[in-house]
Design a protein that fits this description.
Distance between the termini: 140 Å
Shape: elongated
Structural class: alpha/beta
Strand content: 5-15%
Largest sheet: 4 strands, mixed
Number of strands: 4
Helix content: 55-70%
Number of helices: 13
Order of helices and strands: HHHHHHEHEHHEEHHHH
Length: 292
């Protein structure tokens, strides 16, 4: 190994020893100055191939094809709001056709519920289903476009579509929240309605869902509604709904009595100023004349 590597590298360190030692390694190889590096030649060939490939002009047919493809994509984006906006025109129909969720109790088509809320809902609703046998589905949609414009009618449609027979939907409950309309609805089978009660159903629909949805607190609206329904099924006291904020603005206009009172005070002040303005200069003038 030493004799093979000594000729090309030893002259840099000791030229005399390199001349005295015999050249035993590969005597038929050409000298180092005549050897061309293989990697450099490959790079040159590769660059030449790339240059030749880029130098070939494209035909007019390829340009036409690319233009037609770009035109087709542009028309698709303009004519199909599903692609451009990322939301379906009739997402409520997708919910109807997909059926009830298998792995969870939530169909968040409006994409407003957090992961924590979905996890809490799954734990709460699975617990009441295991204990009481009532299955509650939560549905959120952005808006009702083509189907029923009323959230209650849409909730009934979902119940009939998902559970066609009375036996299937007897112990099922459906909670619907429409985020754009800021309204919600609750429906269910006969046993579910009886277990919850009309009082709690009316309260949740008129308090929890619309009030919190108006404030865009969708997670709280859904979870508080589910907790209120579960409490009613378990026979526990009603936790109640959110307090409605009184947004009534106070009027800046004065009443008639206040206006008359202010007007009398204003008349007295103005009269006093007028008396002072006339009487004081006249008294000063009289005093000045009398001295002379």
């Amino acid at each position: 190994m030493e004799t093979i590597l000594s000729p090309p590298f030893s002259p840099l360190f000791n030229p005399k020893t390199s001349l005295s030692k015999p050249f035993l390694s590969l005597p038929h190889l050409p000298r180092s100055n005549s050897v061309k590096p293989i990697c450099c030649s490959l790079k040159k060939q590769h660059s030449q191939i790339e240059k030749d490939s880029f130098s070939v002009p494209k035909s007019w047919v390829s340009h036409v094809q690319q233009g037609l493809a770009a035109l087709a994509i542009s028309l698709a984006l303009n004519l199909c709001p599903v692609v451009s906006s990322g939301s379906a025109l009739a997402s409520e129909f997708d919910v109807l056709n997909e059926g009830p969720p298998k792995d969870s109790y939530v169909v968040d088509d409006a994409n407003v519920l957090s992961r924590v809320t979905k996890s809490d809902l799954k734990a709460l609703l699975s617990d009441v289903e295991n204990r009481k046998g009532f299955h509650i589905n939560i549905i959120t949609v952005r808006k009702l476009t083509v189907s029923k414009a009323d959230a209650f009618e849409y909730a009934d449609t979902v119940l009939e579509k998902w559970y066609p027979s009375v036996e299937q939907g007897n112990d099922k409950g459906i909670v619907v929240l429409v985020t754009s309309q800021k309204e919600g609805a609750i429906t269910g089978g006969p046993d579910f309605i009886k277990a919850v009660g009309d009082t709690v159903l009316d309260a949740t629909v008129s308090e929890n869902l619309p009030v919190l949805a108006t404030e865009e607190k969708y997670n709280e609206a859904i979870f508080s509604t589910a907790r209120r329904l579960v409490a009613a099924i378990d026979g526990l006291p009603d936790p109640g709904g959110p307090q409605v904020k009184d947004n009534k603005r106070e009027s800046n206009f004065k009443s008639r009595e206040e206006t008359d009172e202010k007007r009398g005070q204003f008349t007295l002040v103005v009269g006093g100023l007028l008396v002072i303005a006339f009487v004081v200069p006249m008294a000063q003038y009289y005093a000045y004349v009398s001295k002379k």
